[in-house]
Amino acid sequence: MGKVARSLALLGLTATLLACAGASKQDTGTLLGGLLGGIIGHQVDDGGSAGILLGTLAGAALGRMIGYQMDEADRRKLAETLNEADSGETRRWRNEESGNEYVITPTSAVHDEGGKQCRNFKQEVIIDGRPEVIDATACRSSDEAPWQISA
Q1: Domain residues of the chain, as ranges?
Q2: For 109-139, how does the pLDDT look when each residue is reduced to its tens digit (9 = 90+)?
Q3: Burial (CB count within 10 angstroms: exposed 0-12, middle 13-18, buried 19+), residue 122
Q4: Keywords assigned by UniProt (predicted)?
């Protein structure tokens, strides 16, 4: 079995083990991104340690960011909050799969220059016990359209 095939088999086994262990998407993304980045760095640098190290670090950072992204259930809860909550009303939930906690407070309802409905809101995401607070705006073209978020 070639090096690339062994590496891909290792990635598959790692993903399976992480899923069985209940690891968060963020942790899984970090590990798989690091492994894949290290493999790519090894190939690019002809096995040099600098390529492996840089590939691993870049892959882990990218994998963690991808793993952090809100999943579909979180996006539905955010849309529900923007649709139903009054300005100043806080809604919170915890994603059982990722372990992330969300605290959303719509702060105002406005219309943009193009006539779209918009909601300004404060979003606090608690990841591994560390809060990240973002002020953002979500807009949509009609009551049935999905919200499009801009920070």
Answers
A1: 3-68, 72-150
A2: 998 888 889 999 999 988 888 888 888 899 9
A3: middle
A4: Signal
Task: Determine the Cα angle at 32 with ends 21 and 130, to 5°.
Answer: 70
Residues 135 and 142: beta-carbon distance below 8 Å? no
Amino acid letter, 86: D
Q: What integer pLDDT is reported at residue 120 of this predicted model?
A: 94
The secondary structure of 78-135 as a DSSP string is HHHHHHHPPTT--EEEE-TTT--EEEEEEEEEEE-TT--EEEEEEEEEEETTEEEEEE
Q: Is this model's pTM higher than 0.70 or not?
A: no
Identity (one letter) of the amino acid at 46? D
CA-nearest of 127, 131, 111 to 119 is: 111
